[in-house]
UniProtKB/TrEMBL annotation:
Residues 67-274 form the ABC transmembrane type-1 domain. One of its GO terms (cellular component) is plasma membrane. It comes from Cereibacter changlensis. InterPro entries: CysW_permease, MetI-like, MetI-like_sf, Sulph_transpt2. The complex is composed of two ATP-binding proteins (CysA), two transmembrane proteins (CysT and CysW) and a solute-binding protein (CysP). Keywords: Membrane, Sulfate transport, Transmembrane, Transmembrane helix, Transport. CDD domains: TM_PBP2. Its main location: membrane. Part of the ABC transporter complex CysAWTP (TC 3.A.1.6.1) involved in sulfate/thiosulfate import. Probably responsible for the translocation of the substrate across the membrane. It is a multi-pass membrane protein. PROSITE patterns: ABC_TM1 (PS50928). This is Sulfate transport system permease protein. It is found in: Cell membrane.
Length: 287
């Protein structure tokens, strides 16, 4: 009995306490150098010459245009990617069909392709010198060096996030509840809104937050397709680079601080959803 009790309460690791403390301090030191110090430096540099100058730099027309464009692109691309993620996860987890593995590979493609290469592909496809791009420009609907190109590039970079959060959850849940709802006479849309959507809501929100964070911070692909036109196609990350290259450090760091605050807000919501999502998964395993 004593041996069983000792075995039950045996610690998960057998490393000595001093080694565990060294590992923890090493991780904290790396985080301090790579994360906390740069983040603190952004806010310190933004406020180095006072709140008045920082707020005045945010009131600049080009800065406001960059903020507005960033939020607009995120507001367009995130809902579209959420709809795509739900559809892709549904097709992958609820049906067996040939080519499903290929679809999963395509979903992971933005993780392996450089954003700059992705932006260049859009330029080669929709540029003014191409057949499709020239026809669109002639019709008054340019893609490259315009907002539609920025939206397309952002959607390409961010579309895996929602699908990748939903696929494991929907795979674990199976199809029993949906089949029961259909057996009881529910229509397809009613089944989705009353059975499927409530079961995936936290994973969906978690994926949407990750998608939104990447959409607001994307630089590489957007820098290629936007043309960096000040006040028109310059998003917040691009505008920060332009201001810094012009030695307008206060304006650059102030805009970077705004972007960092948006990222911190997203991180806070992400952490809250992680706690809630963990509770939901625990309840699912118990049942």
């Amino acid at each position: 009995m004593t041996t069983a009790v000792l075995t039950r309460f045996r610690p998960a690791t057998t490393e000595p306490g001093w080694l565990r403390r060294i590992l923890i301090l090493s991780v904290l030191a790396v985080l301090a150098v790579l994360v906390f110090a740069p983040l603190a430096a952004v806010f310190v540099e933004a406020l180095r010459q006072g709140w008045a100058l920082a707020l005045a730099s945010l009131g600049n027309r080009d800065a406001l245009a960059a903020i507005r464009l960033t939020l607009t692109v995120a507001a367009i691309s995130v809902p579209l990617n959420a709809a795509f993620g739900i559809a892709a996860a549904w097709a992958i987890t609820k049906f067996d069909w040939r080519g499903k593995a290929f679809l999963i590979t395509l979903i992971d493609l933005p993780f392996s392709v450089s954003p700059v290469v992705a932006g260049l592909c859009f330029v080669l496809l929709f540029g003014a010198n191409t057949a499709i791009g020239g026809w669109l420009v002639a019709g008054g609907y340019p893609i490259v060096f315009a907002v539609p190109g920025i939206v397309l590039a952002t959607m390409f970079i961010t579309f895996p996030f929602v699908a990748r959060e939903l696929i494991p959850v929907m795979t674990e849940q199976g199809t029993a509840e949906e089949e029961a709802a259909l057996t009881l006479g529910a229509s397809g849309w009613r089944m989705f809104f009353t059975v499927t959507l409530p079961n995936i809501r936290w994973a969906l929100l978690y994926g949407v937050l990750l998608c939104n964070a990447r959409a607001m911070g994307e630089f590489g692909a957007v820098a290629v397709v936007s043309g960096k036109i000040r006040g028109q196609t310059a998003t917040m990350p691009i505008m920060i680079e332009m201001l810094y290259n012009e030695y307008l450090s206060v304006a650059a760091f102030t805009l970077a601080a705004v972007l960092a605050l948006l990222a911190l807000l997203t991180l806070t919501l992400k952490s809250a959803l992680e706690w809630k999502y963990a509770d939901q998964l625990a309840a699912t395993h118990r049942h």
